[in-house]
């Protein structure tokens, strides 16, 4: 019997470990693999032969359950792009040599665009060299939700739930005073505004939600923004504004860069302020009212304690499905989620060719942004709502979450 | 029978509404009050006669339960200091006239230092004018935990639990890469470092927690800080640093102000960067390694979904106790928590003279900070640990928290 290797790559999410749990569960149930290894720090860890025995560290179902509620990549991650096959095959030869040494028959790589590029290249290499006893399969994850060929990505639903929950709480917080105040919240997303759109989910129980929502898919006009803010402040004293970190002006320059050429610190270095920070300065300058900026920062991708139960369950299912693909002899494919219905919410799991996914980006359809470019449409709400449903019961001990470490 | 008036003031917390719930519960159970009013926007709302009938908006126990899990001040807040009695009594006459108009016999004011100052002045005014049919009682709250005469303050435990939970999750997030990286997290607290100290609670289940913790009670030396960071980076690649927003240099100048005289934006205004931001710039400049700053910002005071069950329960008890003080004829007192034992954790509820509380600040005892000034002691851990115990089961509907609004 062959052995199984699992690795993780790209930015951390609250759901990526559930996919590992799914793979391990599927492999265990199949009775068709011998040892299960995890490579530490992704493909880089494979090249460095940094392996951990998952049969040992995940000794019982309790550990596997705990892994589902542990945020970030429990096997570590990396930002590492394999050389193009045209350029040099030496990295590939090294990897294959190591896979053979550990009798690996199945290698499942969990990650985003770059990771799928690795799966694509590695599987191509194997095919080119008639290596058919090692199957390379990808499993998707990214809070940015920008992978094509899958309805959504594991990690996104949990980040979206954190963002929606936080906007609910921020709205209560910002409404306590009766003086005009603007709170600008910056959400992750350089090129895709999915996460920023999720701020609108804070309206699901009747709250106002953000008065204005700006996604990076639409050109951002600061003058128009100031007009929007003035207009909204006439309706209520305290307003919330959601902006993507990647909003750009009509020249295509990031707002976070455009407005601060003059800003330098004592060392003469420019301040790399975020978009919300720049807009905060602008509102203070042009309107003079109370204004704050908030960055959800790393919390939005690692807040496992408020993860989406739907997201965690689907991430696990994707892991099981990815393993099935490998054990059925497929290679160069990625497990994907196909939505068959939004209401009631129904999905099926399928495999797609990984070369149709690698190095592409799925941004928000412009028709899901309102005409004014300062909110989202009902179609967007219909797409997002099912993804944050259900609460996880993460394990708390001594008043704080209990996590598992694998190495 | 007389009526009861409740108002809230100061900055929002995740627990302040539980005190309102406690007062309403205690009053209802006593059978000794007729109507229960809430003043909207604190003492300002009293002066403006902005009242809401709590008997109406809190019509059943379900509403009262929901109120306990709703963050921020459900009755609104204000930043309003009454004139000194020596200066002018007109505000006081106006307030008394309104209290009489609504047949108020008991006025309970929930808040921090300034709010207790209001309770103090108002009760003094009543005594000076032989008004003994209106009792004025204070109930404490502040995430800063800086009120004297009470072991701790409602709102602090929940903020501390959010901070500890977030540091647990940030540690997982920051450890995924194997390259040197510094993540500096800024925690609220201009003059008191209690919240920053709570970051150490992320160690309770065996995690490393922050490698360095700097409270605003100790003088902050940037050169020493850089040395500390270098030393810690030799032990592990990715380190977390917790800093109070109010850290000051030996001249007593806030680090957030000291380092950026040169930093101006395109409008020529200085960037009012936070302390973590300034330290991030400094590390980037002097060490050149990967560095990030994170501000927990408003989230740390309104994250009701991860509130401390101990905090919420005690906040409610304080409300019940504050009402008892009023109904027993006391005035000018504040309900307080006295800790009788830390292990096992035991508290009793007592009343203290509000003039012993008003306008004072309880900072962290220097002996609870380690000698190097970059961590906390076991005495601090013993004090903090009980305050974050227990998880609340806040109501989620449609995937987001359900909150109640009172006006």
Helical proportion of chain A?
Answer: 25-40%
Numbering strands along the chain, what is their spatial order in the largest sheet of chain A? 3-2-1-4-5-10-11
Q: State the separation between the terminal residues of chain A, measured CA to CA.
A: 25 Å
Using the 3D structure, state the CATH architecture of the largest domain in chain A: 3-Layer(aba) Sandwich
Q: Low-confidence parts of chain A, pLDDT < 50 over ≥5 residues?
A: 261-269
Q: Care to count the β-strands of chain A?
A: 13
CATH class of the largest domain in chain A: Alpha Beta
SS field, number of helical segments of chain A: 14
Order of helices and strands of chain A: EHEHEHHHEHEHEHEHEHHEHHEEHEE
Largest interface: A-B, 75 and 75 residues
Please identify the structural class of chain A as seen in this structure. alpha/beta
Describe the structure.
The structure is a homodimer of 407-residue chains. Chain A is an alpha/beta fold. The first copy, chain A, folds into 2 domains: 3-154 and 304-359 and 390-401, Rossmann fold (3-Layer(aba) Sandwich); 156-299, 3-Layer(aba) Sandwich (Rossmann fold), CATH 3.40.50. Chain A has 14 helices and 13 strands. Chain A has helices at residues 16-30, 42-47, 54-57, 61-68, 90-101, 113-128, 156-174, 194-197, 222-235, 255-258, 275-287, 299-302, 309-327, 378-384, and strands spanning 3-8, 36-39, 51-53, 104-111, 135-140, 181-187, 212-214, 238-244, 290-295, 333-342, 345-353, 396-397, 400-401. In chain A, the strands form 3 sheets. In chain A, strands 3-2-1-4-5-10-11 form a 7-stranded mixed sheet, with helices on both faces. The first copy, chain A, has a 4-stranded parallel sheet with strand order 7-8-6-9, with helices on both faces. A two-stranded antiparallel sheet of chain A has the order 12-13. In chain A, helix 1 runs antiparallel to helix 4 and helix 1 packs across helix 13.
């Amino acid at each position: 019997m062959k052995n199984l290797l699992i690795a993780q790559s790209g930015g951390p999410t609250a759901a990526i470990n559930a996919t590992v749990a799914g793979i391990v569960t599927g492999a265990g149930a199949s009775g068709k693999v011998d040892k299960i290894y995890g490579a530490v720090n992704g493909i880089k860890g494979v090249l460095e032969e940094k392996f951990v025995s998952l049969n040992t560290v995940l000794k019982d179902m309790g550990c596997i359950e705990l892994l589902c509620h542990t945020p970030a990549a429990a096997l570590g991650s990396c930002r590492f792009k394999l050389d193009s096959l045209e350029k040099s095959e030496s990295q590939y030869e090294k990897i294959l040599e190591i896979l053979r040494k550990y009798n690996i028959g199945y290698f499942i790589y969990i990650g985003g665009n770059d990771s799928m590029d690795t799966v694509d290249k590695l599987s191509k290499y194997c095919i080119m060299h008639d290596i058919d006893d090692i199957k390379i399969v990808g499993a998707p994850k990214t809070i940015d939700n920008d992978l094509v060929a899958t309805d959504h990505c594991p990690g996104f639903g949990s980040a979206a739930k954190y963002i929606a929950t936080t906007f609910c709480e921020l709205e209560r917080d910002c409404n306590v005073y009766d003086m005009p105040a603007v709170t600008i919240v910056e959400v992750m997303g350089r090129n895709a505004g999915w996460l920023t759109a999720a701020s609108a989910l804070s309206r699901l129980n009747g709250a106002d939600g953000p008065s204005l929502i700006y996604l990076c898919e639409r050109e951002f006009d600061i003058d128009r923004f100031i007009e929007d803010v003035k207009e909204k402040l006439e309706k209520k004293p305290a307003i919330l504004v959601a902006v993507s970190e990647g909003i750009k002006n009509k020249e295509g320059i990031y707002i976070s860069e455009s407005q601060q050429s003059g800003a330098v610190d004592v060392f003469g270095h420019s301040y790399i302020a975020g978009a919300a920070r720049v807009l905060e300065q602008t509102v203070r300058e042009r309107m003079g009212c109370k204004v704050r900026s908030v960055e959800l920062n790393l919390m939005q991708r690692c807040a496992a304690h408020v993860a989406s139960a739907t997201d965690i369950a689907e991430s696990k299912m994707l892991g099981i499905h990815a393993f099935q693909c490998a054990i059925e002899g497929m290679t160069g494919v990625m497990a994907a989620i196909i939505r068959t219905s939004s209401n009631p919410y129904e999905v099926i799991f399928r495999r797609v060719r990984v070369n149709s996914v690698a190095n592409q980006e799925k941004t928000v359809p412009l028709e899901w942004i309102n005409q004014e470019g300062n909110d989202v449409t009902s179609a967007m709400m219909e797409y997002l709502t099912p993804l944050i449903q259900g609460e996880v019961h993460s394990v708390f001990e001594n008043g704080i979450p209990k996590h598992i470490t694998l190495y």
